Amino acid sequence: MASATSAEHGTPAQNRRTAKHPGRLTAGQRRLVAVLTLALVALLGTMGCSLTSLIRLFPPLTPSPTPIAFLTPVLQPTFTPTVLPLTDTPFPPTPTITPTATDTPTPGPTPTATSTGEPTATATPGPMILVPVAELNVRTGPGTDYPLAGTIRQGETYDIVGRSADYAWWRICCLSDASLAWVTASLVQVSGDATDVEVVTVEPPPAPTFTPAPPTLTPTITPTATEAVGFDVEGIEEFPNWGNNWLKVGAQIKANNGAPLWGYRLMFVLEGRGQSWVSPQVSDSSWGYSAPNRLTPLPDARLVNLQFDTNGFAELGDNVWQVYVVDGSGTRRESSIVRLYTSASQPKWYHIRFKRRF
Question: Are 326 and 227 in the same domain?
């Protein structure tokens, strides 16, 4: 029984294969089919001729071919890329970089284009003068014989645009009225290289147009017959003093051997006004220079050991002045009296030499 059951149903392994491949005969089934076939053939053989007919009607069974096992491919999911629609997506704006403040060097001279298109560097400043004194007269030409052009003042600077052949005078630019003028080189300070400044030739100074002065305008010495004095007046010189509306005197007070004497003063008396002034300084024991602007040396500068002017005290004007030497206390007259006749239209400064008699 167990054998028949086993033949009918096959082994468990066969049954598992049959279950795995439906339609395929197990080995037991194939044997059963063979036995039945043989039994049928024997039966038909007994039936004689009818066997052939029966065989024709029932062709012999052939074993079913063993089905071929095919592996069922496992389909992998197909990756279908998602196509996004194109849109105009703006790019993010480029950040603006704000430069930080830096120390920018001062640019040098900027080249400028000439008419030919060639760049040229900006010209460097030329030589200049600096006025080192409170006031300084300038003239229309290189010399004291030229008319006064104006006055320049301490701390002012002017460009040098020309010179005299002997480097004694500079031509400068420009005065307040935009005019050119000449200043003596010895009285100013120069900055920059002035060696290549061009020599400027000007017309000779105009002839003096002074109105003839009356005889009384000449300085005179009034001798004192009743009073003995210690100094004689050795000489008097006068020079133009354009632009200075005051009386200025530079004096030599010297011994009979020509040496400067210390400790004397000058007395100034304005006749008809009842005014007089004594120089605050006393004569020095050494020589200095005196000139229209108190600086050295000019063509009309002279050696002095005492000088005084009435600037701030009285104007020059058309007046008569008395000038003489007094002692150190300012009370005793020591020289003859010099009378000076001044004119506001013809300002001058005076150089007087007082020499001791003994």
Answer: yes
Tokens matching residue 66: 């063993």
Tokens (6 digits) for 156: 């002012």
Report in angstroms the alpha-carbon separations of 23 from 18, 31, 33.
8, 16, 15
Strand order across the beta sheet in which 337-342 lies: 220-222, 337-342, 319-326, 265-270, 275-278
pLDDT in tens, 218-263: 566 555 444 578 999 999 998 887 667 788 899 999 999 999 999 9
Confidence of residue 302 (pLDDT cuts 50, 70, 90): confident
Q: Which domain holds residue 142?
A: 128-191
Specify the number of domains making up the chain: 3
Region 41-53: what's the mean pLDDT? Answer: 60
283 and 328 share a domain?
Answer: yes
Write down the pLDDT at residue 268: 92
Pair (254, 345) in one structural domain? yes
With respect to residue 110, please indicate whether it lies within any of the assigned structural domains: no
